[in-house]
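Section 5.1 Outputs to date
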Amino acid sequence: YPENTILSFRKALDLGVSRLELDLQVTRDGDLVVLHDRTVDRTTDNSGATTDFTLEEIRALDAGSWLSDEFAGNRIPTFLEVLTELPSAILVTELKFEGNAAIEDVLKLVHDQGAAERVIISSFDHAKLPVVKSIAPELPVTALTKADGRTSREGVEWALSQEIDTLGPRCVEITQDYVNTVHDAGLLVRAWGLGRDQGEEMTRLIELGVDGMTTDCPDILQKILVS
């Protein structure tokens, strides 16, 4: 299903998935929309930076036909739509937009919708996370990491100093020693980077004791978990 659409989220929930990962960008007029890339090129019928479009213009784009004609007419949802239309889902919300100016808007929407108990904030931009904690200390935050040294003991100490709740490395960087170190510190591990051909890697991560993983293929993970 086309990523970051209400349709794809509902289909995941139909599988029994309880947590949805989504990405936030900002439009030219300051609205929060659910889109992975900073441009609309890959997943819509138009091109350009998200910040070049107003919300009305973004909402007019086709966000489904890039994948298949059967999904034509799917739209880029707003963050508010996701919060209101999927009231039972825990939303792992990745802040993808540039800068910190929109963080306050994100957190205001979360609180206005009474969704604080079901929103987790994540980002590769680690400077955003202390800002989130300063405004909404009750929200769990996840530091997503690449090969940047955050998978070391020093990385765990950094996470503790920043009040990070979860570390999210790329799946292939996770070892048993890393999981043990993170858990010993009272933190959680969430892997990312898992695709359709990585059932063996999902199994390996489960055996290591990770607390969760982000995948475009929850159907495969669900089969592994019940086998």
